[in-house]
Amino acid sequence: MYTLFKKILFQFEPETSHTIAMRGLQFAYRCGLTRFISPSISTTQHSQTLMGLNFPNRVGLAAGLDKNADYIDALASLGFGFIEIGTVTPKPQTGNPKPRLFRLTKHEAIINRMGFNSKGVAYVKNNLMKMRYRGILGVNIGKNKETPNEKAIDDYLIGFRELWPYASYITINISSPNTPGLRELQESHFLKTLLSALKQEQHRISISQQKYVPLVLKISPDLSDEALRELSQIMLENKMDGVIATNTTIERKGVEDSPYAKEAGGLSGAPLRARSTQVIRELHHILQNNIPIIASGGIMDETSAKEKLEAGAVLLQIYTGFIYQGSGLIANICF
């Protein structure tokens, strides 16, 4: 059924098809129809305990699909073990000019340069207050485009302070290639200060509110080996609770023949598979299970999912694979 639905959706430009799909899913959920397309997954057989949280299964939805927490309940009905929303910025911003989303169908890939299009913390907070979902929810936070890196800490602290009451964990996004200068925050002099400030706030909240909210860092696949080792040491020093590997890539290996290959933005999907797995393998070697790894990037089928787990990941996040394969992918990779 999804094959037919996808064929129709792919007739529209990507942002339009995204809106149609999400609104269609919302309608189906409200009519009680999503149970007919949701995979049957045993929570007893597939549950995972990580970061002090009990995940019903290891397959989650990556950030980017539901940026503003508009569709959490509908998405949850599809069988995900956890859902991550965002990226959420403190103030609303429209993101980059359109077109900014490109579908590379032949390569099962997407290039996006959305640029943190977000309705802002206040809007998302209001949605989170109304959600019925009580499963594992990750909230991915970022900085506004006009905020200089020297003041980025302020934006991340706003996101954390406003949204922690509704989050199972918070993801720090400093690795999107679509906000100018954002990836510079992965450099040691910025990263040490940022993580230290957020860990202090985490500690303050855990003491005053009796709730420990894990902090997860989402990293780029385009880091050099030396930069990855340095970043890993900083994560260990700050006792980060988890790491997501990886965000999208600015490389175009494997899609050189696409008419969209020269479009600016981050590439996701099947072409990212090998590099993402390589980063996971290197992270696992350095971190030695002291920080759990959540795999994201190129998970399109059972083989690519097993590859990520064998490299050292313990949880899986899908986005582009979900767009190309539908909800059936959840059950297929729920080992």
Commentary on this structure:
It is a single chain. This protein is α/β, with parallel strands linked by helices and 335 residues long. The chain has one domain (2-332): Aldolase class I (TIM Barrel). The protein is 38% helix and 17% strand. An 8-stranded parallel beta barrel has the order 3-4-7-8-9-10-12-13, surrounded by 4 helices. Strands 5-6-11 form a 3-stranded antiparallel beta sheet, with no helix packed on it. Strand 9, helix 8 (225-237) and strand 10 form a beta-alpha-beta unit. Helix 8 crosses helix 9 (273-287) and helix 9 runs parallel beside helix 10. The two termini are 24 Å apart.
Reconstruct the topology from this structure.
Elements: H1 2-9, H2 14-30, H3 43-46, E1 48-50, E2 53-55, E3 59-61, H4 72-76, E4 82-88, E5 101-104, E6 109-112, H5 121-130, E7 136-141, H6 152-163, E8 169-173, H7 188-209, E9 215-219, H8 225-237, E10 242-245, E11 266-269, H9 273-287, E12 293-296, H10 302-311, E13 315-318, H11 320-325, H12 328-332
Parallel strand pairs: 3-4, 3-13, 4-7, 7-8, 8-9, 9-10, 10-12, 12-13
Antiparallel strand pairs: 1-2, 5-6, 6-11
Query: Helicity range of the residues?
Result: 25-40%
Output the CATH homologous superfamily.
Answer: Aldolase class I
Number of helices: 12
Could you say which overall geometry the principal axes of the C-alpha atoms support?
Answer: globular
CATH architecture: Alpha-Beta Barrel
- What does the radius of gyration come to? 18 Å
* Strands, count: 13
Tell me the number of structural domains: 1
Would you tell me the structural class of the helices and strands?
alpha/beta
Poorly predicted regions are: none
Tell me the span between the first and last alpha carbons: 24 Å
Please report the first level of CATH classification, the CATH class: Alpha Beta
What profile does the largest beta sheet have?
Answer: 8 strands, parallel, barrel
In spatial order, strands of the major sheet run 3-4-7-8-9-10-12-13
Estimate the strand proportion: 15-25%
